[in-house]
Amino acid sequence: xxxxxxxxxxxxxxxxxxxxxxxxxxxxxxxxxxxxxxxxxxxxxxxxxxxxxxxxxxxxxxxxxxxxxxxxxxxxxxxxxxxxxxxxxxxxxxxxxxxxxxxxxxxxxxxxxxxxxxxxxxxxxxxxxxxxxxxxxxxxxxxxxxxxxxxxxxxxxxxxxxxxxxxxxxxxxxxxxxxxxxxxxxxxxxxxxxxxxxxxxxxxxxxxxxxxxxxxxxxxxxxxxxxxxxxxxxxxxxxxxxxxxxxxxxxxxxxxxxx
Length: 259
Known about the structure:
alpha+beta; Glutamine Phosphoribosylpyrophosphate, subunit 1, domain 1; five-stranded antiparallel beta sheet
């Protein structure tokens, strides 16, 4: 499984993904799930993928082949805006579906892929899209600060409570890392190393692209401090007064009840 999150802010975008696949007792594989397409000063696009790794990798290969072919068709490096870029990704996903879906079905394998595309092309503001397995997509709105794909439920609450469009890139990065830590702690199929990409508004290039592993001092620090802060906050919450001070009456187990 995978967890990817992308945040659209007034000041730019933050992308974070894990790199674990096929997690099991004796098999853990690592693959990057974030790809960057950029022409500094003209455009920068970031693509994240979750679901069947073979499918998401095939989509990336189709998009790169289009760029390398130079046959006059629009590609991620020539399309006029981010909407057209999302359409190209959706078309690539449909192409992979036409080629592989029937064969996968014969082996009882679901065609499962979810993608996030975000970035900025010169002449328009940063934009963010969530692309479904059918190739259709939705775009983030002023009320929608982020998209998630993959194992999203564990990391969602902290983002909902903290992040707004006006949040800084530093705040969003910190929140994304806490969200990822919550997911890693609750799901074995999500794990280090992480891919972090930061895009500043109107710079039209990647501001920071880094890999975060277990030796990263900052990530280790916030994992510990976040856990300690949660325990402290829980301890300070008042106990339910309606339970009173008397010991609770235990409920007998069914095995203890004699007929």
